[in-house]
Design brief:
homodimer; mainly alpha; about 75% helix; DNA-binding
Chain lengths: ~190, ~190
DNA sequence: CAGTTAACAGAACAGGTATTCTGTTAATTC
DNA sequence: GAATTAACAGAATACCTGTTCTGTTAACTG
């Protein structure tokens, strides 16, 4: 019947994730995605709808990166304080290497969630992933008395908050040293 | 010689602070400030320059609110753990009342600092104010052994980070309960 | 192999917002 | 009190960026 698509939508989405992640929604135009992906402008509109829908699709795809790449250690059955520390150390390591992208979902929460409730819903989903991961590690740590016996739910939300802080702070021009101290302080208070 | 200005630049600035604070740089146009202040568009351009300069001037004026209104308790000579707790309780109180504006400087750090180094400098100034205030309270608390004996600078940066978290988290659609738990967790870990 | 149908490439369109221009008014100074 | 000069009010401009239109091409189906 008709001609078939020449590009892979998921590849475009990966490109979009990279760009939105690096530049943010406001600073990344559809034209940037068009240029970087090499796909025709109209093709993108055809496949994804408008810019907002493209952003949401990218945000959803980003969830996989969070789950598979960043939360794996925390989701392990034997995760505890060490896993929590390792997680944040890794984040600090990325910062030390000059990675200032932070977390796409955390940034979306501030930049887009107030203006797009569908974005808010996706962010909430991603946060649930994070919360479950930290929840697992906190339970392990509490069971082994590795961390202070504070209200479990508070601890979990506290760590999610720390993650969100880190995921957005990093994007401002705040000196790396300050961010590191902030995280080290947060971790230093944790042990029993 | 010539006609004199009919409006008070500082009053315009106060209006601009309110609007930028409530809506953010991106969602607040010069037209909003024009409408709310009743001052002529050209008058504002004449007095402040362009939108970016107006924003920076508002950001600088906002510093006074932070210093005089929000940090007074922490800057008191006898400030300690109680002052720290009272400070964050007050923030949570505002949240509970539906105030979702957060902190203009904290938001500016994420929204504008990466694109405007002058904004970054003003934000850094405001953060120094915060840091000094927390520094005072932490020293008081440490001297009286009210909080855990963790590296002083880490504690300070930790609290500045918590403040920044709160100041931006509040703007996303994150449920108030989660934010509250996050802060309560952070405070619960503090006492010796 | 031919027809149909949708993707392609690029230009054109549209809407919103920052910015500036024009005539007019009124305060200040001599 | 008159001249001057800058602020006022509103419209007009410019620009950026998201969105859509046009002709063209090529893949699938019968």
């Amino acid at each position: 019947m008709a001609r078939s698509r020449e590009f892979d939508p998921n590849a475009v989405l990966d490109t979009a994730v990279e760009l939105f992640w690096a530049k943010g929604y406001g600073q990344c135009g559809v034209a940037d995605v068009v240029d970087a992906s090499g796909v025709a402008r109209y093709g993108i509109y055809q496949a994804f709808g408008d810019k907002d829908a493209l952003y949401r699709a990218a945000l959803q795809r980003y969830q996989r990166i969070v789950r598979d790449n960043f939360l794996a250690g925390l989701r392990s059955p034997d995760a505890g304080l060490a896993a929590i520390e390792a997680h944040f150390e890794r984040m600090l390591g990325m910062l030390a290497e000059g990675d200032r992208r932070g977390c796409l979902a955390c940034v979306a929460a501030v930049e887009r969630a107030p203006l797009d409730s569908e974005v808010a819903a996706i962010v909430e989903d991603t946060l649930t992933l994070m919360r479950d991961a930290f929840s697992n590690a906190v339970d392990g740590a509490l069971a082994r008395s590795e961390i202070r016996a504070v209200e479990r739910d508070w601890l979990i939300e506290y760590l999610v908050g720390l993650q969100r802080t880190l995921g957005t702070l990093v994007r401002s021009q705040t000196p790396a040293k300050e961010i590191e101290q902030c995280v080290r302080g947060a971790l230093a208070l944790l042990p029993a």
